[in-house]
Amino acid sequence: MPCVHFLCRHRPCVAVFVNKRKKFISLHSEVLYHKIIREICEKYGKDYTKDLQTRMTGTTDREICVTVVDLLKLPISVDEFEKQLTDLAQKLLPSAPLLKGAKRLLTHLHDYKVPMALATNSTEQAVRLHALSRPKLFGMFHHKVSVTDPEVKHGKPKPDIYLVAASRFPDKPKPIKCLVFEDSVVGVEAAIKAGMQVVMTPGPRLQREHTRHATLVIKSLLDFKPELFGLPPFDKTLNKATEITNK
């Protein structure tokens, strides 16, 4: 799904932040995206179940369209489903709120000159939509890599997106020096295959057994402690309201 990822590098450690599909880990658009899919399915009398939603998390838009149309036997083509999904997403996704703690984390790493990149299972068009709504935030990334990038041959759970993103930093850090922030099972799998460390923020419905391969599992980005990975710790004087803002 719209998953996006960020990569950051700092001294002996690189942090790689990941966002899924149109959802960017810094943006809380995954919920909105699922809502759009559910509405399209309901229009044709079909139920987009929570189990199917969990299965689709972290996959590409095209994979979602193919799977949903096939499993739910929708009376429309995959292309038509994708068109409806894209049209609604273009209207609603730019207004998706930030995940709690995302702005604080990105700003903190940027202030300490930790290089970051965005790597996502979303299309380049989707990335542009988000960037237009938050130019300052997206300007913090050294570069952005989408699933439609010519160098990305396969989306997650393959490691392509992470490896391409890491290779575009000037000093080309080794995978083990990269830290990935993920919330999907396929995203964690891709990062592990890439040889990177992974901090996972799983959804409330995800069973614990699916999180066991992550380097660290936290409930929220607000719980992340940068110093655990060799990154500068948060300033303790930060205003708590700033930490949890959704704006």
Describe the structure.
With 247 residues, this protein is an alpha/beta fold. The protein has two domains: 3-27 and 97-243, HAD superfamily/HAD-like (Rossmann fold), CATH 3.40.50.1000; 30-94, Orthogonal Bundle (DNA polymerase, domain 1). The chain is 37% helix and 15% strand. Strands 1, 2, 3, 4, 5, 6 and 7 form a seven-stranded mixed beta sheet that branches. Helix 1 packs across helix 4 (78-92) and helix 3 crosses helix 4 (78-92). The longest helix has 15 residues, at 78-92. The chain is globular and about 50 Å long. The two termini are 23 Å apart. Mean pLDDT is 79; it is low at 1-5, 9-16, 18-28 and 243-247.
From the spread of the alpha carbons, the general shape counts as globular
Number of DSSP-assigned strands:
7
CATH class of the largest domain: Alpha Beta
Helix and strand sequence = EEHHHHHEHHEHEHEEH
Mean pLDDT: 79
Question: Which consecutive residue ranges, at least 5 long each, have pLDDT under 50?
Answer: 1-5, 9-16, 18-28, 243-247
- Distance, first to last CA: 23 Å
CATH topology of the largest domain: Rossmann fold
Largest sheet: 7 strands, mixed
Helix percent band: 25-40%
Structural class: alpha/beta
Identify the CATH architecture of the largest domain. Answer: 3-Layer(aba) Sandwich
GO molecular function: phosphatase activity
InterPro entries: HAD-like_sf, HAD-SF_hydro_IA, HAD_sf, PGP-like_dom2
Pfam families: Hydrolase
Protein name: Pseudouridine-5'-phosphatase
